[in-house]
Structures are given as C-alpha cells and as structure tokens.
Write a structure and sequence with these properties.
The protein has about 300 residues and is mainly α. It is built from eleven helices and three strands, in the order H-H-H-H-H-H-E-H-H-H-H-E-E-H. Strands 1-3-2 form a three-stranded mixed beta sheet.
Length: about 300
C-alpha cells in the first residue's frame, strides 16, 4: 500500500460511509458516543451508591482509577457497554447499519481467527521469556482467577470491540470517506486512541509510554485497511488485552483480574523503558507476520 493508495477491500469497506459523509454528522456521532459512555457510568454509579451506601461510595469511585480487586475491574469493563451503544447510535446518524462498521462478515471472522492463531503463541512466548528474565508476583489465586475468567473474557471482548468499532470502524471509515490522505483516516484515530491511554503517573516518560499504544493503533489501522474488515484488529486487540489485563498486569494499574503482576509499578517507570522498546519491536514483527498470514 504505497503512499495513500487504498486496497479495493478497504474502498468497499468505506463505501457505506460515503453516503452521508458530512463532518457535522461525525462530530454528532462522537458526541453521542461520549454521552452514552457517561450515561452508563452515571447509571452504574447510582447502582453502586445503592449497593455500598454513602460511606463507602466515594472510596469505591477512587478505587476504579486503578482497580486491584475483581469486582472493581468488572465494573470498569462494564462501562464499555456505553461506548458500544454509542457507536451503534453514531452509525445511525449516517444512516448506516452497525454491521457495516465491521466489513464483510466472512472476512471479519477469517481475520479474527487467523490473527488469534498467529498472535496467541507469540504472546505466550513473549510472556514466558519475560517471566524468565524477571519473575512476576502472584496476584489472584488460581481458583479465583479461573472462576472469574469466563466473565472477564466476555467483558474484555466488549471492551476491545467498543474501541475497535470506534477507532478502526467508525472514525477510520468516516474520515476515509472525506479525506484521501492517511494522515486523516489512519494517523488521527491512532493518535486519539493513544491519548486515551495517557496516565499522569508515568511523569516525564508519558510520551514514551504513549508510543506503544500509538504504534499499536497504527498497526491495527493498517491491518484494517489491508483486509477491509475489523477481524484482524479485533483479534490482535483481544489477545493483547488478555495478556496485559488477565495474565500479567503492571502493578498499580488495572490488576483486579490478573493472575500475576509485575514486581514494580508506574512509580518506577524508568525500569519499564526496556520492556516498552521490546513491546514496540514485538508489535512491528507481529504486524509483518500477520500481513503474510492474512494475505
């Protein structure tokens, strides 16, 4: 895909977005996504207030910033139902069916399962090598972890589906319907995706920490553009988040459903610089392998 040339598959994926491509519709759609997300959070907060009472309510809200208990993490992942509802409504603003955001069904399913087949063993290898270099700290006991695992996998899929439908589905397609340059339909959604991962606890290294989700977003945008479907992006995002949220998490972040945590947290961000570099190289190598596997 040299320059700004687009594959026929991606052009076909963008076609439904070209029927009503006005930018005011895009802005209205984004406002709907934010509104639905905030509304679901507000409804969940009301339910939480009724469940725990006024004395513990604000403590629970603070704990959701870095949840270290299973129930807290389940609640946090549950807020992504709001994003999912929001992007469905945003598509309707353009008189599109939500299914058009995925691309062709068969290609979406093929891309998803091919990506799982390639990514799962490679992520397992990466985690195993990382554990060999520096042993992680046990977090959830095996029985507790296995008991929550089915719910965690389902909620994690809701989370990654919501994000992919917004960034690689809705935004990428609607921007591609208006602009030819990749800076608009590939780079801008990836930058926004990276900024959602901004964490003030990373201090002066915040831009280095944002480089990983930026590269990750660009890779998923490229795979979407090459295949004309969300399948590969969904598969890669799902495996990545299972590894980072359910297998081994960074201490002090979202650790409530993780089997292990790192022996250091964001308060020792300098210790994570080598692993950030390894992650970027790993993502780029995996990208090249997926291009071959999906061809």
């Amino acid at each position: 895909m040299a320059g700004d040339m687009r594959t026929p598959e991606f052009d076909a994926m963008v076609r439904p977005a070209q029927l009503y491509p006005e930018l005011w519709r895009l802005f209205l759609g984004l406002l709907l996504i934010v509104f639905c997300y905030v509304s679901v959070m507000a409804l969940m907060s009301v339910g939480l207030f009724a469940a725990v009472g006024p004395l513990e309510f604000f403590g629970w809200l603070r704990s959701l910033q870095s949840p270290d208990q299973p129930v807290q993490t389940v609640l946090l992942l549950g807020t992504f139902f709001g994003m999912l509802l929001g992007v469905v409504l945003a598509a309707l603003v353009h008189f599109r069916g939500p299914g058009t955001l995925f691309g062709p069904r068969d290609e979406t399913l093929r891309g998803f399962f091919v990506t799982l087949a390639v990514a799962v063993p490679l992520y397992a290898l990466l985690i195993g090598v990382g554990m060999w270099f520096e042993a992680p700290v046990a977090n959830l006991p095996w029985d507790t972890w296995l008991r929550y695992l089915p719910f965690a996998l389902a909620l994690l899929f809701v989370q990654i589906a919501a994000e992919e439908l917004i960034f690689r589905g809705y935004l990428q397609q609607q921007l591609a319907a208006r602009f030819a340059g990749r800076w608009a339909w590939m780079v801008l959604p990836s930058v926004l995706f990276a900024l959602l991962h901004w964490n003030p606890e990373t201090g002066n290294l915040v831009w280095l920490f944002l480089a990983v989700p930026l590269v990750f977003g660009l890779v998923m945008a490229d795979l979407t553009a090459r295949t004309g479907s969300l399948g590969a992006a969904l598969g890669l995002h799902f495996v990545n988040n299972v590894a980072g949220l359910l297998v081994i998490s960074v201490a002090g972040t979202i650790t409530g459903l993780s089997r292990w945590v790192t022996p250091f947290g964001l308060d020792q961000a300098e210790r994570m610089i080598p692993s950030l570099g390894v992650n970027i190289v790993f993502i780029l190598l995996l990208w090249r392998l997926l291009i071959r596997a999906l061809r």
